[in-house]
Amino acid sequence: MTKRDLDFMEHADGEAEAELDADGRAKVAVIHELGELVRGRLESAADGVPEARLARMWADIDKQLAPPAPRGWFEHYRSYILTAAISAGAVAALALVLRSAPRAAIEGAAAGVVHRPSEIEELDTPNGTGTVFNVADEDGSTTVIWVTSNDTVGSDL
Amino acid sequence: MKWLALAAVLISPLFSRRAFADERAECNYLEIAATTSKSPAIDPELQPLEKKLKRPPFASWNTFHKLSGGPVALDKLKAETLKLGQGAASLLLRDRTDKRLELTISIDGADGKRVLDNKQSIAAGDWVVWGHNVKDDGHILALVCK
User: Fold this and answer.
1) Most buried residue among A138, A151, A152, A155 by CB atoms closer than 10 A?
2) HSE-up of B9 (CA within 13 Å, CB side)?
3) pLDDT: which is higher, B122 or A155
4) Looking at the complex, does the CB of residue A126 fall below 8 Å from at least one CB of chain B?
């Protein structure tokens, strides 16, 4: 059986284990030698690349692999700040509405219908007699407490 | 939680201002001498009370002169003394709401004798008046608080 060059190459790569004659073994030896030469040449070429050039290549690779530049504080917390501002505004508006609505109703009632005049809880006039007046005019009513001294009882007041 | 804390910080002034307002009253007073003269007159500074001074019990006099007056700030439960042109007065804010104030008032005459002690709940913005006879004349203290 005639062996082809491909068979010798498979034999050289260890993929075939058939017995070889002298010619075949010579060819396999030549293939091994040729492989050594090619590997040697490639290693030599790699060694010939300047270190500086390799460094530039790695730097370029690093740049491409580097994470994006860090964002600013505001950029980072923008969503939190917006959420807080909107929430605070809503709460403040709610507080104002809840606070002002009943008061407006009370003020309306007080001004229009129920105006409570002064309420006298205690009155002590040790040296005279106290009289309470309600002086009303177009501006409203005013409570007046008038004390007539014991010394002047019987005068005009 | 951060936004909740921030919201609390932002709205807290609304409530603190309200709490502060409940502890104080801003008042104005007028001390008035009431007399009878041939040329009736009411001091221009008494304009807020002018219409009332023409009605009883003030109608007994026709001349009203301002003796003293001005603003007075009352802090809750802290007595404030007014040195009047004729005598003295003591004002105490006992409590208050938006619409009403609870006051304790004491008035001493020029002779140092106590004229009156009064506890009164008044409407904010309404004038309240105390007065007494001084011989044939009248001595009046008017107060309005907000």
Assistant:
1) A152
2) 8
3) B122
4) yes
* A141 strand-pairing partners: A136
Nearest chain B residue to A88, by CA: B7
Q: In which order are the strands placed within the sheet that holds B114-123? A: A119-124, B114-123, B100-108, B88-96, B80-83
Predicted confidence band at B6 (pLDDT cuts at 50, 70, 90)? low
For B135-145, write each residue's pLDDT tens digit: 999 999 999 99
Query: Can you tell me the mean pLDDT for B131-135?
Result: 93
Q: In terms of DSSP bridges, do strands A140-149 and A128-137 run parallel, antiparallel, or are they unpaired?
A: antiparallel
Residue of chain B with shortest Cα separation from A138: B51
- Provide the pLDDT for residue A157: 39
Is there a contact between B100 and B106 (Cβ–Cβ < 8 Å)? no
Task: Find the closest chain B residue to A89 by CA distance.
Answer: B7
3-state secondary structure B108-119: ECCCCCEEEEEE
At residue A147, does pLDDT exceed 70? yes
What pTM did the predictor assign?
0.57
Kindly state the tokens that stand for B25: 């009253």
Q: What is the pLDDT of residues B72-110, one digit of tens each?
A: 999 999 999 999 999 999 999 999 999 999 999 999 999
**Range 68-107 of A in CB contact (< 8 A) with B:** 80, 83-85, 87-88, 91-92, 95-96, 99, 103, 106-107
HEC profile for chain A? Answer: CCCCHHHHHHHHCCCCCCCCCHHHHHHHHHHHHHHHHHHHHHHHHHHCCCHHHHHHHHHHHHHHHCCCCCCCHHHHHHHHHHHHHHHHHHHHHHHHHHHHHHHHHHHHHHHHCCCCCCEEEEEECCCEEEEEEEEEECCEEEEEEEEEEHHHCCCCC
Chain B interface includes A134 (CB < 8 A): no
Residue B31: beta bridge partners?
B68, B141
